[in-house]
Design a protein that fits this description.
The complex is a heterodimer of chains A (279) and B (82). Chain A is an alpha/beta fold and 279 residues long. Helix content of chain A is 45%, strand content 13%. Chain A has a seven-stranded mixed sheet with strand order 1-7-6-2-5-3-4, sandwiched between helices. In chain A, helix 6 runs parallel beside helix 7 and helix 7 (198-206) crosses helix 8. Chain A starts with a helix and ends in a 9-residue tail after the last helix. The relative contact order of chain A is 0.15. Chain B has a single domain (4-81), classed as ACP-like (Non-ribosomal Peptide Synthetase Peptidyl Carrier Protein, Chain A), CATH 1.10.1200. In chain B, 60% of the residues lie in helices and 0% in strands. Chain B is globular, with a radius of gyration of 11 Å. The N and C termini of chain B lie close together (11 Å). The chains are: A alpha/beta (279), B mainly alpha (82). The A-B interface holds A 160-163, 165-166, 196-198, 201, 255-258, 260, 278 and B 17-20, 37, 39-47, 49, 60, 63.
Chain lengths: 279, 82
């Protein structure tokens, strides 16, 4: 069933590329080399993630009994891996990137919220703010390739809701930096942002500082509903811009459920999206 | 030890305060999800708030079986006798 669905999406994508709607697309910037390179990099990325999670992090676990120190060491290793990945793809000129204001990430008790246009957004953010913990899709805790890594680093699964919120709250109170993608999943291109309220709620519960990061990728690639091999005709460029801290004091006079709705709606405005009708 | 009526009053007052609901809408049969539009994140806020008032920890597992205001009153009533 999944197969059928994906095939249909591929067909739609090919129709789009083949249709006369867009001007005849010329494949530039060593298209075929980028295509093969992208595939190889994902293969290496998966292998390295598996080896880090099942060999390196267990060794760290053995030599570091203290939980917080162990998690920070594990995150440093994973962060270094993600940095190498990013430098690799940009040194090999598969991608370009610009990261503005990254020195303002990684402060104690800081909640970082970002939109999520592409598959590898997290590599930029955790690669360059490696002390941070992160809310991660619960499925990654079951996936054989990723589970060793996400457990070792002490990342937080996004379900069940009450555990996610209380664990995230505790992490921020302990002075950790936390990364959340408020949409809960990648943005579907062309659709308005669907902001979940979890990030706003956690921010108002425990964040000392709330910092947005605006991510864009031009031309769009590695987005939701597109397989990795649908690479764009020219080399894509990621731009990550760390925004101004958001003043949380302005929301604190209302009870939490009301305040988190207000903050969520303001976040949606900042990220240029819309919130679900129901709110 | 609080009577069921007292619990009901506190629950209603809390729901009105936290979610800006109209008091008459908070009837015992009202469903959190459908009638009161309280989602899973709201539920966490609600449990945390009530746990502080009643000085009892409502565990997520207990709360998962709660569908209506009446279920919640039952749940709190059970916890305070434990």
């Amino acid at each position: 069933m999944m197969r059928g669905r994906t095939d249909r999406l591929h067909a739609e994508a090919s129709d789009y590329f083949a249709s006369g709607k867009s001007p005849a697309v010329r494949r530039t910037d060593y298209y075929w080399l980028r295509l093969v390179g992208t595939g190889l990099w994902f293969l290496v990325f998966g292998l390295v993630t598996f080896v880090l999670g099942f060999v390196v992090l267990p060794v760290i676990r053995l030599v570091t009994p203290d939980r917080l120190r162990r998690q920070h060491r594990s995150r440093a290793v994973l962060g270094a891996g993600m940095r190498v990945f990013i430098h690799g793809v940009s040194d090999l000129r598969f991608v370009e990137y610009e990261f503005i204001g990254r020195e303002r990430l990684g402060r104690p008790g800081q909640l970082i919220v970002a939109n999520h246009p592409t598959l590898i957004d997290v590599c930029f953010l955790l690669g360059f703010a490696p002390t941070a913990t992160c809310i991660v899709k619960a499925g990654h805790f079951r996936n054989l390739i990723t589970r060793g890594a996400v457990i070792g680093a002490g990342y937080i699964p996004n379900a069940p809701t009450e555990e996610m919120i209380h664990t995230a709250e505790a992490a921020l109170r302990q002075g950790e930096t936390l990364l959340m993608f408020p949409e809960g999943t990648r943005t579907v291109p062309g659709k308005p942002l669907n902001m979940q309220r979890g990030a706003a709620n956690v921010a108002l519960r425990a964040a000392r500082v709330l910092t947005p990061v605006y991510i864009s990728c031009e031309p769009s690639t590695l987005s939701k509903n597109l397989p990795w091999y649908r690479i764009p005709p020219r080399r894509p460029k990621w731009t990550l811009r760390v925004g101004e801290d958001i003043d949380l004091g302005a929301y604190r006079d209302a009870p939490l459920p009301i305040a988190s709705r207000r903050l969520n709606s303001d976040l949606a405005g900042l990220f240029g999206g819309a919130i679900p009708m129901r709110d | 030890m609080k009577s069921r009526q007292e619990i009901y009053d506190i629950v209603r007052k809390t729901l009105v305060e936290l979610f800006e609901l109209e008091a008459p809408a908070v009837v015992p049969e009202a469903s959190f999800n459908d009638d009161l539009e309280i989602d899973s994140i709201d539920a966490v806020d609600l449990i945390d708030h009530l746990s502080r008032i009643f000085e009892r920890r409502v565990t997520p597992r207990e709360f998962r079986s709660v569908r209506t205001v009446n279920d919640l009153i039952d749940c709190i009533d059970r916890l305070q006798t434990q």
